[in-house]
Design goal:
single chain, alpha+beta, BirA Bifunctional Protein, domain 2, two-stranded antiparallel ribbon, 4 strands, MobA_MobL
Length: 115
């Protein structure tokens, strides 16, 4: 069985990253970044086992339902060229586990404040 690891990462503009690009990759979908006019397409990838957006109860429904709307709004409101637009978890869960068990582990390791 593989060794588990968990890493927290920050998406920063100063490193040339955008939250829209990361969201497209993590959701294995196609999203256009309205700020820079570039489309990121990872829909050809077939290795996605699950994707979920966690947001506060007070978050507007149209933002929660659409990765594109959410991450384009994040990029729009951040004004600094070196701004930190998002954070994400990089988690390696043993491949021997089934998808349901992987999701259970994922929710168990998330801080309660995020759920």
């Amino acid at each position: 069985m593989a060794i588990f690891h968990l890493d927290f990462k920050i998406v920063t503009r100063s490193e040339g990253m955008t939250s829209v690009a990361k969201a497209a990759y993590h959701a294995r979908t196609r999203i256009t970044d309205d700020r820079i006019g570039e489309t990121f397409d990872f829909s050809h990838r077939t290795d996605l086992h699950g994707h979920i957006i966690l947001a506060p109860v007070s978050a507007p429904a149209h933002i929660i339902e659409s990765s594109s709307a959410l991450w384009n709004e994040v990029e729009r409101v951040e004004r600094q060229n070196n701004g930190q637009t998002s954070r994400y978890f990089d988690v390696a869960i043993p491949v021997e586990l089934n998808n349901d068990d992987k999701k259970k582990i994922g929710f168990r390791i998330l801080p309660k404040e995020l759920c």
